């Protein structure tokens, strides 16, 4: 195995190869760094948005380097535009590769969505229809990313507000086929499942029953904002600005009961709370993960 | 992983969804794209509006994050309206949002409602430079002792190399004072000066430092950043500012970490 080394000026720093399995993690926000360091090393991992570390140098790299020494890190891309019809931005892909080589993350993920059209970057995760034509270009894009970075990526299911008449496949069938064709893994965002099901008037449990859980390597949990549509029905916005709701926790337990423990991130990207609040939310996920492990063991013991 | 299929092209006939969305996301006057549906009883237009709103709001927030002093000066309502115009006219062309807003100061300069604040664009220029300094490459800054060790005659013909984070900005207004007063949370006092100000941004250690420099020191630093040898830069500055204190200026820009090194050239190099 290639040594885990980064070049840092005249020195070469070796990052430990931390294990991420069965752990709960949190989004890494720089304002929490002093509290994180103060607390001493604890169990867990941190996830960062790739684009925030694509500058040449400065405090962001210093902070992430410090965190990476003590913790496993997951790098989550938010703007590769894998779901768009146009070719991937080669410059962006090269930056993504450089970042992954530098930090040797435990997990690398991107979205089933698009965000750039022609030269305009929209800064949102925009939807696509699910059919043979989009399957082909999304699969090609995933292949290109995986070949460029030399490792598997995890693809995240979107939160949806509408559907396309051009779609000929369900989202779960589309995702299963992508995983099968490209060898990518999946990042199951349970909040997105709940948000989409509510907004589209479908069943979250039904979605999870059809979803290819065997490919899942990471789970996202997050809070959403509740609005109402013109008929007074709930309309959920994937806002990542609050605690995980009870329904999402319940769905999460349903998933883990079927899969066993999977690295789980509590995403919180705006209205960011203080560090103790965020760790409490991660501790809640960790407790469920640990319970899953022990019930796994009970089942195995019972089977012996 | 299966072998690469590198035949990728934009097939807009087969995949018009992105073009249909893109043309409408930044234009609130246009209806929802064809082919989008919402569950029974809901209007697709309303659902499309969520994406439109996300795009606009997230980009306004991106500009607010780059230009917090500008936001504080104008107030949120004014800022959001101004930013919304700018976003629709000049959306980002890079997925790296820390690169966004380079055209915003020039937009502010032309924005009719900001005419009563002619200094606002320069404050925004300092904020944009601050973010560039923040993300600039890591390099050690020039140590004071390295200058002390150089022979004076070699020093006169030396050219200095700016640190990657270093930015120098001129303003016809007291932009530094207005920036400094509004960049944090502290109460803003009355800004008494009306004088033009030069602002130097550097990143000598952990964070970005912003300081005001006098016009003579600014001329000196600007010359050095342009690659003018030290001796000639000092002569030019002295000619323009007879009371220029060279050793104080050097001590100042070394302490600020404006340069990362210098290279001595022979006298023949001096042209």
From TrEMBL, chain A:
Q: Which InterPro entries match?
A: MbnB/TglH/ChrH, Xyl_isomerase-like_sf
A Pfam family annotated for this UniProt entry: MbnB_TglH_ChrH
**Database matches in PANTHER family:** UPF0276 PROTEIN HI_1600 (PTHR42194)
NCBIfam families assigned to the protein according to its UniProt record, in alphabetical order: PRK05409.1
Q: What family does the entry list?
A: Belongs to the UPF0276 family.
Designated name of the protein:
UPF0276 protein SAMN05892877_11839
Automatic annotation (TrEMBL), chain B:
Q: Which residues form the Putative DNA-binding domain?
A: 19-108
The record's InterPro entries line, in alphabetical order, gives: DUF2063, DUF2063_N_sf
Which GO molecular function annotations are given, in alphabetical order?
Answer: DNA binding
Q: Cite the Pfam families for this sequence.
A: DUF2063
The organism's superkingdom is given as Bacteria
Entry keyword set: DNA-binding
Signal peptide position in this chain? none
Its protein name is: Putative DNA-binding protein
The source organism is Rhizobium subbaraonis
**Taxonomy-wise, where does this protein's organism fall, top ranks first?**
Bacteria, Pseudomonadati, Pseudomonadota, Alphaproteobacteria, Hyphomicrobiales
């Amino acid at each position: 195995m290639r040594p885990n080394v980064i070049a840092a000026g005249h020195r070469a720093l070796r990052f430990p190869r931390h294990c991420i399995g069965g752990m709960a993690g949190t989004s890494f926000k720089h304002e929490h760094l002093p509290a994180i360091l103060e607390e001493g090393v604890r169990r867990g991992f941190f996830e960062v948005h790739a684009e925030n570390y694509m500058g040449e140098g400065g405090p962001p790299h210093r902070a992430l380097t410090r965190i990476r020494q003590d913790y496993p890190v997951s790098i989550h891309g938010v703007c590769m535009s894998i779901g768009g019809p146009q070719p991937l931005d080669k410059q962006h892909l090269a930056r993504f590769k450089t970042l992954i080589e530098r930090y040797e993350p435990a997990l690398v993920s991107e979205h089933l969505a698009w965000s750039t059209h022609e030269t305009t970057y929209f800064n949102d995760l925009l939807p696509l229809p699910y059919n043979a034509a989009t399957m082909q270009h999304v699969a090609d894009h995933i292949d290109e990313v995986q070949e460029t970075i030399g490792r598997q990526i995890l693809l995240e299911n979107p939160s949806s507000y509408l559907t396309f008449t051009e779609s000929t496949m369900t989202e779960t069938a589309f995702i299963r086929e992508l995983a099968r064709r490209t060898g990518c893994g999946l990042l199951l965002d349970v909040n997105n499942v709940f948000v989409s099901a509510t907004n589209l008037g479908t069943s979250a449990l039904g979605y999870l029953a059809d979803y290819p859980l065997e490919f899942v390597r990471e789970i996202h949990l997050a809070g959403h904002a509740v609005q109402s549509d013109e008929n007074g029905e709930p309309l959920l916005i994937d806002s990542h600005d609050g605690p995980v709701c009870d329904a999402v926790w319940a769905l999460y337990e349903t998933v883990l009961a079927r899969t066993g423990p999977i690295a789980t991130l509590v995403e919180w990207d705006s209205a960011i709370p203080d560090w103790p609040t965020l760790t409490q939310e991660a501790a809640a996920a960790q407790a469920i993960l640990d319970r899953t492990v022990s019930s796994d063991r009970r089942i195995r013991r019972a089977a012996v | 992983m299966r072998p690469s299929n590198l035949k990728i092209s934009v097939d807009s006939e087969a995949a018009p969804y992105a073009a249909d969305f893109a043309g409408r996301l930044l234009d609130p006057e246009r209806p929802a794209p064809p082919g989008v549906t919402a569950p029974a009883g809901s209007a697709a237009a309303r659902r499309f509006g969520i994406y439109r709103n996300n795009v606009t709001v997230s980009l306004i927030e991106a500009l607010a994050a780059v230009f917090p002093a500008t936001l504080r000066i104008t107030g949120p309502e004014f800022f959001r309206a101004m930013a919304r115009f700018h976003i629709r006219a000049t959306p980002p062309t890079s997925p790296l949002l820390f690169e966004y807003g380079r055209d915003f100061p020039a937009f502010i300069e032309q924005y009719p409602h900001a005419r009563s604040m002619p200094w606002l664009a320069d404050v925004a220029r300092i904020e944009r430079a601050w973010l560039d300094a923040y993300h600039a490459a890591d390099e050690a800054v020039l140590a004071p002792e390295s200058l002390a060790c150089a022979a004076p005659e070699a020093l006169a013909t030396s050219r200095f190399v700016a640190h990657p984070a270093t930015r120098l900005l001129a303003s016809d207004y007291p932009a530094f004072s207005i920036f400094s007063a509004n960049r944090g949370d502290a109460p803003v006092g009355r800004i008494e000066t009306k004088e033009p100000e030069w602002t130097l941004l550097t990143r000598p250690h952990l964070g970005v430092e912003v300081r005001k420099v006098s016009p003579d020191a600014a001329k000196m630093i600007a010359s050095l950043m342009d690659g003018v040898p030290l001796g000639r830069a000092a002569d030019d500055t002295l000619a323009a500012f007879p009371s220029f204190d060279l050793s104080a200026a050097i001590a100042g820009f070394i302490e600020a970490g404006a340069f990362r090194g210098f290279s001595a050239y022979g006298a023949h190099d001096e042209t």
